[in-house]
Amino acid sequence: MRYYMIDDLTEDDVQTLTASLKNSSLDSGIDTLFWLPVPREYLSKLQCEHLETCGPYIMGIELLPNALRLELLVRARGRLRCDCVRYAEKELQTYMMTWIDRCLTSLLIDA
């Protein structure tokens, strides 16, 4: 699996981030896993074609005791296996990494 990882977070940082992600309704049902929705403009042609049957599309954030990991795999909430489940293109990776960086900055987490 490919990831974007930020480590060296404190326990307080992880708790603050967890609360923020839960308040944003991004929780997955698993305490340390959160789903970030993929904006439609970053979907591939195939993902757009499969949107109604396989979507919505998400990317996972896993919070570890001292780190955050963004999976670079675009998952389909409506189907586990399909050709539309694939790694994010560079533009989407950049968008999501920037989103995470802004989130940390807004929470005053120095990572």
Largest sheet: 6 strands, antiparallel
Number of strands: 6
Indicate the proportion of strand residues. Answer: 25-35%
The chain-level mean pLDDT equals 95
Query: How many angstroms separate the termini?
Result: 22 Å
| Total of domains | 1
| Share of residues in helices | 25-40%
Spans of at least 5 consecutive residues with low confidence: none
| Elements, N to C (H/E) | EHEHHEEEEH
Radius of gyration: 14 Å
Question: Number of helical runs?
Answer: 4
Please tell me what the overall shape is: elongated
Q: Which structural class should the secondary elements be placed in?
A: alpha+beta
Please tell me about this protein's structure.
The protein has 111 residues and is α+β, with helices and mostly antiparallel strands. The protein has one domain. It has 4 helices and 6 strands; from the N terminus they run βαβααββββα. Strands 1, 2, 3, 4, 5 and 6 form a 6-stranded antiparallel sheet that branches. The protein is elongated. 23% of the residues are buried. The model has no long low-confidence stretch (mean pLDDT 95).
